[in-house]
Amino acid sequence: MATLKDEGLHKPQDITMSPWALQQYGEPGDHDHLPTTFDIDYQNLSLLLQEAAILYPLCAKPKLYPIIQPYTPVTITTPVIPIRSVAVSTKDPFSEGNRSDQGPTHATDYREYDTPAVPLRHIDNILPLSVNMGNRQEISAEGVWGGIKPAVLLSIKPRQANKDGHTFRTLEFEVPLDHHHQSSSQKDALLNLHAELVDSFPNPNPPTIAPSSPISPQTRFILYLCGGPGDGNPSGKVPELNKFCINRGYQVLYVHYRGTGLSPLFFDSTAKAKVLKMSDQDKADYLAKFRQDDIVRDLEAIRLCLEKELAAKIKWTLICQSFGGWVATTYLSFLPRSLEAVYISAGMPPLGKPPREVYEKTYVHVVRRNEDYFNEYSPEDQEHVRTIVEHLRDKAPLQKGIEGQSAPFRGYELYGENGERKGCYLTYQTFMTLGRTFGSAPVIHRDSDEDGDEEEEPLSLTSSSIRPQIPLPYQKLHRLITSFISDLDHSMSSSKSNAESTISQTTLSLYTNLESFALHRRPLYALLHEAIYCSSTCPQTSQPSNWAAIDVALSHPSGAFSWLSSPSISTSTSTSTTSSSIIPSKGEKYYFTGEAIHPTPLLSPLGGPALTPFLGAAQILAQKADWPALYDFCSLRRNHLPAKTARGEGEGEGVVKVKARAVAYKQDMYVDLGLSQQAAGLIGGCELVVCPFGSWGHGSLKEVDKTGRVLGWLFDGV
């Protein structure tokens, strides 16, 4: 029992409160019907106050917190509470001139604030401010997340051997494009989902494999969630993961997310024709249904389908890589009762962080990788990069505008292994996106680095005892640059200027093998890369992305990304003075970008005909502000609480605890460690393991000599 002080009562003015916390305030002095005491769950109250402090910093000004006078000491911390305190930034975010949209960080101290209480109207015996939060999850699931129907199982193909020797069977499901409106029978309102179920070890005697044996309802399911957005999810991509999971008594399901891999973007040619004829706005609305929230609905529909087919209760254990962690956290937010455990490698989503803040963090890593590369090859390669960009920008063959993009541009057409046309081109912008490959290179340690506690990487049967001096991605890029310069030198010596044959097919093949965006195969990566950060969960993320990545790059103090500027295209055969203005002057730095998508290279033929019909929709998505919520922070924070409420206890009631553990990497170029640590702090009961080996990175889970170690950390901790 606790008492609210009845003196100095006031009504706060000009405060924007969380939608779930907002209740009717009584008028000043209208306190006749207000009780003087309340039954308060202090654990839930503390979570509420801390969530408000993080998500609504302008509401969390200390003087607005009510004094709570308990009969016993009150504890308010995370996850258990020894004293009444609220986490705030060590640099007071509420001081004059420092009221940014960023709330308290994890560099915190704990201060006590003695302030008058706020008069709250007591309605229907439910505490205002939702102090009793026992039914919040139920409201979320029954509202926006209710009504998901089982997917339709179209087919199960007989078992076959995977390339790693494990046996798997293929399943095809059908789900609605929009799970909220499932009444339409039109084909364009349906999607096919391809899945592969790995369920046994390789067998030296193939005839003993029963191809028609049913799926085992007794064997627990692991659902592997791959990176992206836009990537396929083949079952043989991480062989050691299959072996590890089957050894632990699981069967592993790989689902190709909607619109990716073997789950086609369009149901059939009729649906494709209809979508391509849509207006840009309608295309944008269509593409908005391919983010992680609708992916989760698909996965839940598949789970319900399997429960129905197998007549057994199924809970997923999620193993997630990169973007798969985004998907899993949405799943954990809204449908935790469907999950047994969540294990994430290099994929903690930046909860509560807008795209710009995310890119400000990741661009630090991009710059660091560029410095590593050019420190190894500088100054020669820096000048070579300048020469290559000038050639591609001003002297490459002039190409006609392709379908969906009428403006001409300069570049070289790219062809497939069999000489087929891909519809993609090498331009100066696409060349400068090759820094995306830097993410698989370890950071070169410097004497000035503060972190000196990294352990030595353990040796394995597949790793050499002598590390290569130059990381492989840097070697490949250097080889491409050298080949490019050799072609240009040979062209000059042969007096071949401005000819289409200036750059050899060998060099173009080297570029094709190194270019890793592959937007012609996965256009959703370009169209939704910034949208996966946008959510109505809190004010910071309830805003358009506005191509945040290019804004961060162009504002970098080095000026090394100035090539992202988009002046008019030169159609003359001589060097254009307009175009040369984007080339940094001699001596200035010139850097490659990372995995972020920027409108300049996006609007170039990087993605070919698979992407160009959606360029107008991409601009609309960049301006879209009314994205649905991707996370429920209150639900995530309460994950560590026991499954018990005032309404009862036991399975199916109260809050369900889901085991959650993640591995993060110190020098991850794609997922910042600091943001991962903050996100883990917002998920109740989540344990974050920071990999001690500095040379391990974003894709360690998928590397054959590291998979077992990473999975061991995820399943067993350290």
UniProtKB/TrEMBL annotation:
SUPFAM superfamilies found in the cross-reference section: alpha/beta-Hydrolases
Entry keyword annotation includes Magnesium: no
Region feature (Disordered): 91-110, 442-463
Biased composition (Acidic residues): 449-458
Highest taxon above the source species: Eukaryota
Keyword Coiled coil set for record: no
Keywords, comma-separated and alphabetical: Hydrolase
Family classification: Belongs to the peptidase S33 family.
Protein's name in the database: AB hydrolase-1 domain-containing protein
Originating organism: Neurospora intermedia
Lineage of producing organism: Eukaryota, Fungi, Dikarya, Ascomycota, Pezizomycotina
